[in-house]
Amino acid sequence: MNRKLSFWRISIAGAVILTAIGVYSLSAQNRAGNPQSAVNSAFEQFKGLKEGKNADYIPALAKVDPNLFGIALVTTDGKSYFAGDIKSEVSIQSISKVFTMAQVIQEQGLESIEKRIGVDATGARFNSIIAVESVKTIVGAGSPEMNPLVNPGAITATSMVTGGTRNEVWNKIIGTYSEYAGRPLTVLEDVYRSEADTNQRNQAIGALMFAYGYIKSDWQQAVDLYTRQCAVGVNAKDLAMMAATLAAGGRNPITGKRVLDESKVPGVLAVMATAGLYDDSGKWLYHTGLPAKSGVGGGIIAVSPGKFGIAVVSPPLDEAGNSVRAQRAMAEISNALGGNPYAVMAKK
Ligand code: DON
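^ thats the input. predicted complex w/ 6-diazenyl-5-OXO-L-norleucine below
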């Protein structure tokens, strides 16, 4: 009788433990979310959102279809999840700044960017000249108190890419971007011509950065190559691959090619976290915790370190120059998948 009783007690206790484990792992799964459902559901939720306006200070960007909307997520183990239009290309624009910075860091070390440009937020618009002037007034000309994700720092970073000729420098830049994307990328020539015809402000910034000793070589070449790098054509999938390469510690998760040393990735991500969405970077980080970078072509990339890279392409922008739909969709997806690196569960 006693034996029978203890048999039942053990069986019931076993069943309770198994159920508890089941319930726990189910809720853990829910916390982590299913990537394809998260991507689909954000696509459905935001496909009708009409806020924002295409950039038009570069005439070619005003002509891009504002309805274009594509989402791509690539995990660090190479699984991909898509929704919407992931094939149409837009110009990479300011997202390029991340990969030129990374190229310089890869060749010349983390300190090269920190010493010449700086890794501090300016809190100003991406093409602010006052930001350069206030650094000069407060700390002096040539002080490394900016960052490579705003135009003065980005044009300087482009000037730091080494090469004997303009073509050599350019081939390095486009070659690096292509390795991050895992396919050969090309320039959207109409966007390049359109921006080259209207980039007088960036020329002024280039000349100023030369005058203040940040740029130490041909500033006109730097501005021209910067303009060209902004016109590289990418789709949502390319951008997600580029982000996933950073998420995976500098190795492209599909091709297996190492593009950036593991030890250099945190520095790149730190600048993205500080300045990736310009004067709205703090707001973005507050809601998502993700290092990210936007471009006026309508793309945004974000990196969940060790987990995934995500990208959305949708041209209409908000006042700060960041894609409205991309911000909303990416925040939703990342939060559903537990992508925020600061969101740690307390130990029980
Ligand atoms: O320098 C420019 O004006 C553009 N080629 C890039 C600007 C940009 O993408 C700013 N992004 N949010």
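The pocket of 6-diazenyl-5-OXO-L-norleucine is lined by residues 93-94, 126-127, 151, 195, 202, 230, 294-296, 321 (CB under 6 Å).
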